[in-house]
Design a protein that fits this description.
CATH superfamily: Metalloenzyme, LuxS/M16 peptidase-like
Structural class: mainly alpha
Shape: globular
Helix content: 55-70%
CATH topology: Cytochrome Bc1 Complex, Chain A, domain 1
CATH architecture: 2-Layer Sandwich
Number of strands: 0
């Protein structure tokens, strides 16, 4: 994984973003009762809790992720001594300006 960041480009990011969005649509959005767990967890757990949102994130967060955001996330969470305990959505929400 040490060279993965070197291969990251805007074209690659856009391609992978499309793959993840398609997976979200086919696994959750376009399935009968596909969003029930996401809605249930949103009500059961408070905002900021790791289970409050789905692991795959929202379409808005996927669209908002810039190349720099993804590069920074990769550098922060994929070092061999780092254990990633936060999802992408939690990480991006923590970097947003309040308001």
């Amino acid at each position: 994984m040490g060279t993965l960041l070197d291969a990251l480009s805007q074209e690659n990011l856009d391609n992978q973003r499309a793959v993840v969005k398609n997976e979200k649509r086919s696994s959750y959005d376009n399935q009968p009762y596909g969003t029930w767990q996401e809605k249930l967890f949103g009500h059961l757990y408070p905002a900021g809790h790791p289970y409050h949102h789905s692991t795959i994130g929202s379409m808005e967060d996927l669209d908002a992720a810039s190349l720099e955001d993804v590069s920074s996330f990769f550098r922060t969470t994929t070092h061999r001594t780092t254990r990633c305990s936060r999802s992408w959505e939690t990480w991006t929400r923590s970097r947003r300006a309040p308001g």
